[in-house]
Amino acid sequence: MRRVAIWIALSAALAPSLVSGGPLDALNSVRTQGCGGKPGVTARLVRDSALNEVAMRMSSGAALGDAVAAAHFHARLSTSISIAGTPDEKALTRVIAERFCADVLNADFERAGAWERGKDVWIVLATPFTLPQAKDAAAIRKHALELVNQARAKARKCGRQNFGAARAVALDIKLDRTALTHSEDMARHGHMTHRGSDGTSVAERAAHAGYKWAKVGENVAAGTPGVADVIQGWLQSPEHCANVMNPDFTQMGIAYALNVESEDGIYWTQVFGTPR
Questions:
Q1: Burial code of 235-244, b = ≥16 C-beta within 10 A, e = fewer?
Q2: Cα 145 from chain centre
Q3: Is-contact 116 199, C-beta < 8 A?
Q4: 161-163 vs 251-258, strand pairing mode
Q5: Interatomic CA distance for residues 8 and 18, integer angstroms
Q6: pLDDT in 10s for each residue of the chain, 276 residues
Q7: What is the 3-state secondary structure (H, E, C) of the chain?
Q8: pTM for the full model?
Q9: Backbone CA torsion sign across 18, 21, 27, 32
Q10: Among residues 183, 185, 193, which one has the least CA distance to residue 131?
C-alpha cells in the first residue's frame, strides 16, 4: 500500500461543502487531455463517496493514512493533493496540470474524491484492493500450499540463517481449523497478533483443534489481500521465512478472515506442524 501526501498550502477554512463537480471535472480534464508533454489516460477517475470523506477529514488536519482508515477505505494505492486559493475551475485545472501531472496521469489510480472549503480544495486519488470471498477459500488454500512448497524446494537464506531445500508439506484440516480460529479472532478485534484475545498461543490453539503436535509454528499477516503477496512478505521476513523453510515441519494450515470495518480489512494465519 502506498500512501503519499502532497501539500501546496492550507489557508483559513470557511464552511465546508461536498464537491459535486469542479475539482473532479478538472482532474479528469487533465487526465484525459494529458499534461507536461505526456499523453492523456483513457480511463477517467471514478467519483467515490468514501474518498470524499477522506478528503473532508484531511481538510480538518487528518493525515492521509489516518483519514483512509477512518473512512474504512482499503487502499492498495493512494495519494492526496491540497491546493489553496484557486479562484475558479480553470485556475484549478492549470495548477493540477502544472504541479500534479504525474499523479493525475498515473493509470493505476482508479477513484477520486474531493472536498472544498471556500477556495481551498483537498483531493484524494486511490485504488482499492479487492478482498477475497469465502467461496474462494479452498482455491486460495491450495494455491498457498503450492507457493509454500515451491519456496521450500529451493535453498534459501532467511536473514542470517541458511536453509537447504526442504520436503513438501501437506495441508492438514486441523491446522486449517487452528488458522481460521485465530484469523477470525484477529478480524473480530481488528488487531494482528500471535496471542489470541483469550491469551492462547498457537500451540494451545492447535491442541484445542485436536492436533497432537511435536512441533508447531505460526505466521500472521494483515492488510494484504493476495495470498501470493502474503507469502512473499513472509519469505522476506527472517522469522517468518524460517517457519516456511523449517525442514522439521511436515504439515500446514492457512486461513483468512475479513473485517471490512477495520483498518487492515483482512487477517491471515499460517500454521505449521509436525505431528507426534
A1: beeeebbbbb
A2: 22
A3: no
A4: unpaired
A5: 21
A6: 333 333 333 222 323 333 345 899 999 999 999 999 999 999 999 999 999 999 999 999 999 999 998 998 888 899 999 999 887 889 999 999 999 999 999 999 999 999 999 889 999 999 998 889 888 999 999 999 999 999 999 999 999 999 999 999 999 999 999 999 999 999 999 999 999 999 999 999 999 999 999 999 999 999 999 999 999 999 999 999 999 999 999 999 999 999 988 888 999 999 999 999
A7: CEEEEEECCCCCCCCEEECCCHHHHHHHHHHHHCECCECCCCCCCEECHHHHHHHHHHHCCCCHHHHHHHCCCCEEEEEEEEECCCCCHHHHHHHHHHHCHHHHCCCCCCEEEEEEECCEEEEEEEEECCCCCHHHHHHHHHHHHHHHHHHHCCCEEECCEEECCCCCCEECHHHHHHHHHHHHHHHHHCCCCCCCCCCCCHHHHHHHCCCCEEEEEEEEEECCCCHHHHHHHHHCCHHHHHHHHCCCCCEEEEEEEECCCCCCCEEEEEEEEEEC
A8: 0.76
A9: positive
A10: 183
Residues 6+ apart with CB under 8 A from 218: 182, 194, 202, 243, 269, 270, 271, 272
Round to whole Å and give the CA distance between 227 and 230. 5
Taking the CB of residue 6, how many other CB atoms lie within 10 A of it? 14
Chain-centre distance of CA 176, in angstroms?
A: 23
**175's grid cell:** 491446522
Torsion sign (Cα): 18, 22, 27, 29:
positive
Interior CA angle at 253 toward 250 and 254, to 5°?
Answer: 140
Residue with cell 477459500: 137
Set of cell numbers at residue 168: 513438501
Count of residues in the chain: 276
Query: Cα 163 from chain centroid?
Result: 30
| Chain position carrying cell 513472509 | 234
